[in-house]
Amino acid sequence: MPEMPEVEGLVQFLRDRAVGRTVAAVEVGAISALKTYSPAPTELTGRSVTAVARHGKWLDLTTSDDGDLHLVFHLAKAGWLRWYDAVPKTVLRPGRSPIALRVRLDDGAGFDLTEAGTRKRLAVHVVARPEEVTAIATLGVEPADLSIERLRELLEGKNQQVKGLLRDQSVIAGIGNAYSDEILHAARLSPFALSRSFDDDAVTRLHEAIGAVLASAAEQASGRPAAELKDSKRRSMKVHGRAGQACPVCGDTVREVSFADSSLQYCPTCQTGGKILADRRMSKLLR
């Protein structure tokens, strides 16, 4: 799933290529991706793209004519944005194609929103204001605005496992499964540590790790073509997606805990005092 650094990279990519262009056509390939029906996506046609922004893991294209309309979308777990310098001339039709939406610009360029797999979660909204999307209106603090005092308040507000807190978009916006693993590894914290158990040193380590990991990832994503962002993200991971490999910090074997539809990775030496966390599918979690 694209997270804050990759989404910010896509924002910069689209800002450089789409702002100032006019929407020539919008074609729908998957009706299920549309979460709003009025205004219709076709009402974006003829409007100028005036801005591109990010809200957590949501992308927001502002189009202007007689008032603003926003094309707001969330790429979910298996979605992506495919850019064309010259969009295929074939008109997109609803069907079994992985293409959910196609946007054509007046210079012949444009992009597709695609989604792989059978579980379709990509979400596309056309709204007058992004806050009309509930998931955007309820977003928590952006990592760049997260002070150590605010982080301490969030940790103390609800006693929950820190991995879940970092992924909760209503608490902190933009962090998902991959970067929460990376942040906790950098902070030397167990993913199952309870938030109210953190002393001042743990809060400081977590705050510093959030800033450092995301800043590094955002810098790496900046300026990259959309097609390169996913591979760049994978290469930068130290523990996420690297179960069975050596931890680059201590050399211990990176371990995994699997859930119904996701998994997490961690280093026992760096994060859990050498303890192996039990797979939740098999037994009770060790903290």
Strand-helix topology:
Blueprint: H1 4-18, E1 23-28, E2 48-55, E3 58-65, E4 67-74, E5 79-84, E6 99-105, E7 110-115, E8 123-127, H2 134-137, H3 148-157, H4 162-167, H5 177-187, H6 200-221, H7 229-236, E9 255-258, E10 263-266, H8 268-271
Antiparallel strand pairs: 1-6, 2-3, 3-4, 4-8, 5-7, 6-7, 9-10
GO biological process, one term: base-excision repair
Keywords: DNA damage, DNA repair, DNA-binding, Glycosidase, Hydrolase, Lyase, Metal-binding, Multifunctional enzyme, Zinc, Zinc-finger
Family: Belongs to the FPG family.
Q: CA-to-CA gap between the ends?
A: 27 Å
CATH topology of the largest domain: N-terminal domain of MutM-like DNA repair proteins
CATH class type of the largest domain:
Alpha Beta
As laid out across the biggest beta sheet, the strand order is 1-6-7-5
Number of domains: 2
Radius of gyration: 20 Å
The total of helices stands at 8
**Series of secondary-structure elements, N-terminal to C-terminal:** HEEEEEEEEHHHHHHEEH
Please report the total strand number as a whole number.
Answer: 10
Q: Would you tell me the overall average pLDDT?
A: 94
CATH architecture of the largest domain: Alpha-Beta Barrel
Helix-residue proportion: 25-40%
Indicate the low-confidence ranges by residue numbers. 283-287
* CATH superfamily grouping of the largest domain: MutM-like, N-terminal
Strand content: 15-25%
Please describe the biggest sheet, giving its number of strands, its sense, and whether it closes into a barrel.
Answer: 4 strands, antiparallel
Overall shape: elongated
Return the structural class: alpha+beta
